[in-house]
Structure formats: C-alpha cells, structure tokens
Write a structure and sequence with these properties.
The complex is a heterodimer of chains A (478) and B (504).
Chain A (H helix, E strand, L loop, with lengths): L11 H18 L6 H22 L5 E3 L4 E3 L1 H27 L5 H18 L4 H19 L6 H32 L4 H11 L4 H18 L7 H8 L2 H8 L1 H17 L4 H24 L4 H22 L2 H29 L14 H4 L1 H15 L5 H15 L3 H26 L13 H19 L2 H10 L2
Antiparallel strand pairs in A: 1-2
Helix pairs in contact in A: 1-2, 1-4, 2-3, 2-4, 3-4, 3-10, 3-11, 3-14, 3-20, 4-5, 4-11, 5-6, 6-8, 6-9, 7-11, 8-11, 8-12, 9-10, 9-13, 10-14, 11-14, 12-13, 12-18, 13-14, 13-17, 14-16, 14-17, 14-19, 14-20, 16-18, 16-19, 17-18, 17-19
Chain B lengths: L6 H19 L4 H24 L9 E9 L4 E7 L3 H18 L8 H20 L3 H10 L1 H11 L4 H30 L4 H5 L5 H18 L8 H8 L2 H26 L1 H6 L1 H20 L4 H29 L3 H36 L10 H4 L1 H15 L5 H16 L1 H26 L6 H4 L6 H19 L2 H19 L4
Antiparallel strand pairs in B: 1-2
The chains are: A mainly alpha (478), B mainly alpha (504).
C-alpha cells in the first residue's frame, strides 16, 4: 500500500501560523523583558503573513484535504481574514495594557497564536475530529489566558470556572460526536450528511447525538441556559483577555455551527432548529433583561454578548441560506464592534486602575471627546441604530426570520432590542451627560488610536455602505 | 442646469458633512464653529430653494428623483424624490435649521461645535426622511435622527434632562421597531422595498389592520397622539431652545407625514375601518390636551401641550377623508381635510417654533420658564411683546395668521363628516384662545411683576431677525396660502383617488 501525502497547500496558513507560534516561543525564551516588543512584532508579522498567504492561496472552489478532515472554502477564508484582523487588533490593544500591569510576557502572544490556530482549524474543520481538535486547542489557550494575571484572585477564580465548565462542555460535545459517529458510521461531515440523507432521521441515537452537540456548541457560544461562565470570565479576566475571549472566538463558533449543523447535520435541521430557537429566545430575553441590572461594565457587556449570540442564532433558526449569511455577517460586525468597545475600556483605563464600573466612564466627553465619540458610535451600533453597521446586522437577521415565517419571533426580538437599547444609552449618558470627577485628559497611544479609529470608522462606513461585506457573506454560503 | 444636479442628495448630505466639519473645528474654537455652522445652514437653505422654484405643481409624480442601487443583495435602493407632501416639509426643515443656529448663537457656551454639529446632522437626516422613497432608506433616516436629538436634550438640557431624553429615545424607538417588522413583512409579500410599490400592494384585511397598527405605533408616538404623548412635554421642557424648536417644528411633522405617505395609501381599508380610532384620539388631543394646557404653570410645557392639541388637528384632518366620502362622496370635500392637515403642519412648524424661541428669549434673560415669574414684560420689552402677542394670536388661530387657515379647513371638512366631530374640533377655537392668550396676558401684560422683569432689556438684532422672519412667514401663509396649497393639490388628489379604491 502506497502512502500518498496529502495536499498541504490548502492548509498553508495554518501551517505557517503553527510554525511561527513555535518560532515565537523559542525566540521569546531568549529575550529580556525590555525586548518583549520583538515578540509583539513577530506576532503581528505572523498575522500579516497568514493574511497574505490566505489571500494568495485562496482556491476558486472548496478543496478538501487531509483525507477529508480539512476544508478550504470561501466561507473559511472570509472568516479567517476577519480573524487575523481581530486578533491583530487585540494584540495591539493589549501591549500597553499588559505593560502597565507588569504582565507583559511572551506567553501571552504565544497563547494568542495557538488560540488563533485553534480557531483556524475550527473554521476549516470538515470532520467532527478536527472540530474537536480545534476547539480544544482554542479552549486550552483561553483557559491559560484568563488566568494570565496569576496573582489576581479574581482571574484565577474566573479561569477555574471557565476550565471546569468548559471541560464539561467539551465532554458533552465529545459524547455527541461519538453518538453521531455511531449513528452515521463516519466522522467526516460530508459522509454524515450523506448517511443522514440515506437513512432519514428516525434514529434515536442520532437525535441524542445532535442534542449533545448543540449543548456543547451553546456552551462555547454562551447561549442561555449555558451562559453561566460568561459573565464571570468577562469580569474576572484581564480586560485585554476579555477582549480576546469576546471577539475572535465568536467567528469560530459561528463557523462551527455552519460546519456541523448546517453542512453536516442539515438533514435533521428541523430538530436542531427547534433547539436553537429555544436557545435564541432565552438568550435574547435573559441577556437583555439581566444586562440592565449590571453596574460593572464588563459584566454588562457579557450579558449584552449573550443577547447578541441569541440574535446570531436566530439567523440559523431561519434555516435559509439568507439566514446563515445574515448570521455570518452578524458575527463579523459584532466582532468589529466588540474590539472597539473593549478597546475604549482599555484606553480609558490607561496606566491606572481597571475600568470596572460604568460610572468610571463619567464625563468622558470632557476628558477625551474623541474616545467618547468612538464609544458613542459603537454603543449606538451595538444597540442597532441605523447608519451604523449594527443595524444592518440585526436587519439582515430579522429579514431572514420574517421570510421564514416567524413574524412573532421577529417582534419578540425587536421588542427585546428596545429594552436592550436602554443599557447602551446608559453608557452614552454617563459619558456625555455626567460631569467627570477626575478631569485629567486621557492619553491614548498611537497604535491604540489607530485600532479604535479603524473600528469606529469601519462601523460608520459599513453603516453607510454595507453592501460589499453582505455580498461577501452571501457568496461565502452559496 | 440646476435640475441636473442631484439636489436632494446635496440637501441631505451637505449639512451632514458640514456638521462633521464643524465637529472637526472643535469646541476650542467656538466662534469659528458658529460661523461655519451658519454658513452650512444658509447654504443648505439656498440649495433647497430650487426644489420649490423648479417644482411642477400640476403633477403628483415624484420629482427630482434619484435612484441608485444601495444594498443590492436585499434590493434596497438609494431612491429619493419629492412630491407635494414632502417638498414643503423639506423647505420648512432647512428654514428652521437656520433659525436654530442663530438662536443658539450666544446662548450656547458649552461645547458649541458639538451643539451646532448635532443640529446640522439632524437636519440632513430629517430631510432624508422626507425625501426617501425606499422604505429601508426611510427607516434608516427615521431612526438615525434619534441619536443627535438624544444628545442635544441630554447634554444641553435642563435639570431633568437625562430622564427626559431616555424617555424620548425609548418611546420613539419602541414605536418604530414594529414598523420595521411591518415593512419586512410587506417586502416578503411584494419582493420590493419601494414605497410606491407598497402603495399598489394587495393586502388582506387582517394583514392591513396589523400593518396599520404597526404604522400607528411608529407614527402616533412621533406625532404624538394621545395616549402616547407623554414623552413630549418632558422632552420639550428639558430640551434647550433649539432642541424644542426642532422637535416641535419638524420631528412631530414626520409623524404626520408618515400617515399620508404610509398608513393611508398602503392600508386604505384598515384606515377606513379604524378611522374612528384615529379621529377619537385626535379629538381627545384637541379637547382634553387643550384643557391640560390651560392649567400649566411652565410656559414650555404649555406650548408643548398646545403642540399636541394642534397636531391632533393634523391627524383629524387626514382621517376625516373616509367619513366625508361615506357621507357625501365628494372627493373635493375629502381633499379639504388633508389639505387642512398639511397646511396646519407647516403653519404649526412656524408658530410653535416661534413660541419656543420667544420662551427662549425670556429664559436667557431671567432663567425661569414659570409664568408667575413674569408679568408686564411689555413695559420693558415692547418689541418682543409685539412679537409674542402676534405668535400667541396665531397659535389661537386668528384669521390673517397661518394658524387660522389649517384649523379652518379642518373644521370645515369635519362638518361634512359629522356635526359632532366638527363641534368638538371647533372647541379648539375657544380653548386654544384661552390657554394661549391667558399665558400671553399673564406674561406680557399687566404691572411689572418683579425686579427681574424690570431689568429686562429688549431683544437685540439677532433675536429681532429670527422672530421677524418667522412673523413674516406666519403672516404670509395666513394671508396668502395659495402657493402652498397649489403645490400640494395634485398630490392630495392622487392620494384621495388612491384611498377610495379598496385593496382587498
């Protein structure tokens, strides 16, 4: 029997990131603390390289490799490109934050790169095995990152919770995978889809498997009622890590739902759509309502994330290609807004204490009109007010939902987003209508300014002309 | 040559980009920011004039149309155009914004650039609302308007500004989201986001009623109609003068405009079936809210309630159509109601704006809006008193002022529908006179009330110009409403022809 080596080209970005992560780890070991910026540059170089590689090697059609465990397609490329930009922004925003807190260590960057690799594998997963591999690589990196400030009790507690609950979720997912494997006889999603088409969906084992898979995914997404870890992790982790946890993994999770549920288990869509429907409704409702009661800004944003996850899942509930592309559009724009929002929190915190309470943003307009304006744009966009991209994200999802015939669901979602608008308005109120206690201007480093400016400008420009990105999302899911 | 320019786009985007430029000048340079804002506002007004001069009055077709694909995957177009309903309101907007910039000239000292920019950006968005012919474009402008207004009330408002502005925002946001669902539903039915396509879309009765209710929720909050009017007095009282003027003169009109552009033509059967509801609520606004206005101690609150009552006339005029057609079958009678409503909208824009500016003039000097803190203002401010009395008379509907024309047409039309409707509507002539003139009497006439009033200085040139221009507008529209009714005529006739045809 001859050994035929698999085609490595489709996986070139992943291989590059893996190699560079190892190189970074090695080089960093020989660097002194004041040379840490080299690690930072190396990471940014890796991201830039991966970006170029992805653009250069993008195939015209879907390509499978590694015996059908890995797929390279338009959806994957779109999400990976967004991923590089998101992680790049996270690293730029993190540097000064970490320095100011004396935890500017090389491991942060290496873990960030391994997390990125995990997400890339998730996005390109064509079998349940690679799904699990990618997910675990990401999760393990995230557990370590959350505990990165090891002297902080809060961080350690958050990391512990995250680890225990995350491990539970992984177990569920694995259990679901084994059942699906048992029912369909294959790990490859394409083969699973074929088996389902042939055998129908009367199989009890399969339905159980799907249920466990959905639970696992919901855990990773943070959808209600599997959201318990999310507020604690958001609050407990260092803000730069919260930024990481809150942004890029949402892209990977969205890809996961597309890969596993839509492409693999599309045959039993009726079953998982019901489950997602419940998750979405609960998430939108609970997320928005509980967020109102929060005074800690990171916790509030955590509940806001939960409600957005619910909105995103609505796109999948619609069960149409329009709905799926709306969900992908939602994920990308959500990440854009989240990066900016946490970026502002990091920037306002500056070298001083962490921004904890919403009132810490008091009178930001007097201290730094520019930062306040960026935050205003982001908050309004997150609330879904138009001429900002957040509106079109909600709009696309709602349109798909109404077209699928769920008018009542759409009404529920919009009423909840009105309730949700309240807590975003409160942030604006604190920034603009209250007078600051500490009038000192906020100094913002140039790279942070660039990232925040790009995020705010992106939200506004995409708000005026969202067509191009929408077309990309639609094309990616055709 | 002018007709070849994309005039509507210019009028929408010039103030928005101008506002961004003002923001860029920054608060450190208030004098420059003010001047730039005034230049932008006047330039926009001048740009909007060809809309009037180049308007063909004889046709109900959309004019100055612009059509570009915008969000192609969803078939959403950047589609603009004006007819007899929207063109006058666009001019009202550009005109009022110039006054608002002048009104804030010396009064606003905190963050001048942000203040001016907010109003300019809002101007562009409001014109966009009137000019949009694509529902999503309309909705986008409609919602985006909330942000600058939210900030204007919240930053430069009175002591309870935070409560007022959040209430304002959530009320109007809540009202409009249902409309979005209705619009999406109609897209699902018709495959298009064109407003004019929706006009011809066949809809069943249940669908129509539900869509009508969605429109009601969106527009009734904006108008505002009883019982969802409670945000308005709060917002008005707390808003700075400029904010009150824009709220009263323009944003309320967007609610009225929504009824003639959306509710009546898209859901004519539901409108006919539910006209009693709108008429009833309008009459409550006219009678009950007028009584509420009568007991107000705060001048701004009084004018706010008077706005609700006057806007009740607008919605009353619009929805009399069906009653008149049922009774007399006369289309010209029905047209009178809508015409009255439209004239009332423009006229109320002038009058309420002027009254809020008057209160602003007093407030800037005495820092009180309470009626009891004044008295005998005529002794120290004779020129101002003359203006205030004129606008008060106009608000009460004195013949010769613009306030008379609209109210008269609506009352005349309501006689054709039902005597009792006419009776209740006509009560406004008494009640309106009562609350306005009583306020004017207590503030302007009598003995000099206190030390503050004795020290008042009469209005300066800036104030004289802005009140004078409004006085001319109020009198001109009152004495010669012909040009306004002429441009609306064809559009109104078309609307009447449209609503008599059942869509079932």
């Amino acid at each position: 029997m001859n050994f035929v080596p698999p085609d490595f080209t489709p996986a070139a970005p992943e291989i590059f990131v893996l190699a560079m992560a190892c190189v970074t780890l090695l080089i960093d070991a020989f660097l002194r603390d004041e040379q840490r910026h080299i690690t930072h540059r190396l990471c940014q170089g890796t991201l830039a390289g991966a970006l170029l590689l992805t653009l250069a090697t993008g195939p015209a059609a879907s390509v499978f490799t590694f015996h059908g465990h890995f797929v390279r397609d338009a959806l994957g490329d779109l999400l990976k490109l967004s991923l590089y930009l998101a992680v790049g922004a996270v690293l730029l925003l993190s540097r000064d934050y970490l320095k100011a807190r004396g935890i500017h260590r090389g491991e942060y960057y290496v873990l960030g790169l391994f997390g990125l690799l995990g997400m890339m594998v998730m996005i390109s997963a064509a079998s349940l095995l690679s799904v699990y591999l990618g997910l675990e690589l990401l999760s393990l990196s995230l557990y370590a990152l959350v505990a990165f400030d090891r002297d902080s009790q809060q961080s350690s507690e958050a990391a512990m919770k995250y680890f225990v609950l995350g491990a539970l979720a992984s177990g569920m997912l694995l259990y679901g995978i084994s059942m699906v494997y048992g029912a369909s006889g294959s790990l490859q999603l394409e083969a699973v889809a074929r088996a389902l088409a042939a055998r129908g969906m009367q199989d009890l084992v399969l339905v159980f498997g799907v249920a466990f898979l959905v639970v696992g995914l919901a855990f990773k997404f943070g959808a209600v009622p599997f959201h318990m870890w999310l507020p604690d992790v958001y609050q407990g982790a260092p803000t730069s890590v919260t930024l990481y946890v809150a942004s890029a993994p949402k892209l990977a999770a969205t890809a996961l739902v597309v890969r596993v549920l839509v492409e693999g288990l599309g045959g039993v869509a009726a079953d998982w759509q019901q489950m997602l429907l419940v998750l979405a409704v609960l998430s939108i409702g609970a997320g928005n309502l509980i967020a109102i009661a929060q005074t800690n800004i990171k916790r509030m944003l955590a509940y806001s994330t939960i409600s957005h996850v619910g909105f995103l899942l609505l796109g999948f509930v619609a069960g149409t290609p329009e709905g799926y592309s709306a969900a992908v559009f939602y994920a990308i724009t959500y990440v854009l807004m989240t990066v900016g929002t946490f970026g502002v929190i990091i920037a306002v915190g500056g070298k001083g204490a962490e921004i904890d309470d919403i009132t810490d943003l008091k009178g930001l307009n007097d201290r730094s009109p520019w930062l306040a304006f960026v935050m205003l744009v982001l908050m309004m966009s997150t609330a879904g007010i138009p001429f900002l991209v957040g509106f079109y994200a909600k709009f696309a999802v709602l349109k798909a939902v109404v077209e699928a015939g769920f008018v009542g669901l759409a009404i529920f979602a919009v009423v909840m987003s009105v309730i949700g608008a309240f807590y975003y308005l409160r942030v604006v109120k604190v920034m603009y209508f209250d007078k600051p206690e500490d009038r000192s201007p906020v100094s913002v480093a140039l790279d942070v300014q660039t990232v925040l400016g790009a995020s705010g400008l992106g939200v506004m420009l995409l708000g005026i002309y969202p067509t191009a990105l929408m077309a990309l999302c639609a094309a990616a899911l055709r | 040559m002018l007709s070849e320019l994309p005039l509507l786009s210019l009028v929408i985007w010039a103030p928005i980009l101008g506002g961004a430029a003002v923001l860029f000048v920054g608060d450190d340079n208030p004098a420059k920011a003010r001047r730039l804002a005034l230049v932008v506002a006047i330039a926009t007004f001048v740009l909007s004039l060809p809309l009037w001069s180049g308007f063909e009055a004889g046709t109900a077709k959309m004019q100055f149309e612009e059509l570009w694909p915008w969000i192609a995957p969803f078939k959403i177009n950047y589609h603009l155009g004006v007819d007899g309903f929207s063109m006058p309101l666009i001019l009202l907007t550009t005109f009022t914004t110039v006054l608002v910039v002048i009104a804030g000239w010396e009064v606003i000292e905190y963050r001048v650039a942000q203040y001016m920019a907010a109003f300019l950006i809002m101007e562009g968005l409001m014109i966009g609302v009137f000019a949009a012919l694509d529902v999503i474009l309309f909705y986008v402008f409609f919602e985006a308007m909330l942000i600058p207004m939210f900030l204007v009330i919240g930053i430069w408002g009175g002591p309870r500004r935070v409560y007022a502005t959040i209430k304002f925002f959530l009320y109007t946001f809540f009202g409009s989201v249902f409309m979005l669902i209705a619009l999406l539903y109609m897209y699902f039915k018709s495959g298009s986001f064109e407003i004019l396509a929706y006009h011809d879309l066949k809809l069943g009765m249940t669908e129509q009623v539900l869509i009508f209710i969605a429109f009601m929720l969106g527009f009734a909050v904006k108008v505002p109609m009883f019982p969802v009017h409670t945000w308005l007095p709060d917002a008005h009282v707390e808003a700075p003068t400029g904010g009150s003027v824009i709220l009263a003169a323009i944003t309320l009109k967007i609610g009225g405009y929504g009824f003639v552009r959306f509710a009546l033509p898209i859901t004519p059967d539901a409108s006919a079936a539910l006209d009693w509801l709108v008429i009833g609520l309008s009459l409550i606004a006219v009678v009950y809210i007028s009584l509420v206005a009568l007991i107000q101690q705060d001048m701004k609150k009084l004018i706010a309630y008077s706005s609700i009552a006057h806007m009740g006339f607008v919605t009353l005029g619009f929805f009399l159509v069906f009653g008149i057609l049922r009774n007399t079958g006369s289309a010209s009678g029905a047209a009178m109601g809508i015409q009255g409503g439209m004239v009332q909208m423009v006229s109320h824009g002038f009058i309420s704006g002027a009254l809020f500016l008057c209160v602003g003039v007093l407030y800037d000097r005495v820092h009180s809006r309470q009626i009891r803190d004044y008295g005998g203002v005529v002794n120290t401010m004779p020129v101002f008193a003359a203006f205030m009395v004129l606008f008060g008379m106009a608000n009460a509907g004195l013949p010769g002022t613009s306030g008379f024309v609209g109210e008269f047409l609506v009352i005349l039309a309501s006689f054709k529908a039902n005597f009792w409707i006419a009776f209740l509507a006509a009560l406004t002539l008494i009640l309106g006179a009562a609350y306005t003139l009583w306020m004017v009497k207590r503030v302007v006439f009598g003995e000099v009330g206190n030390q503050h009033v004795a020290e008042l200085a009469d209005i300066n040139t800036r104030e004289f110009v802005m009140l004078g221009v409004l006085a001319i507008a109020v009198l001109a529209l009152g004495l010669w409403p012909g040009p306004l009714t002429e441009v609306m005529g064809a559009s109104i006739d078309k609307l009447i022809q449209h609503v008599v045809v059942s869509k079932l």
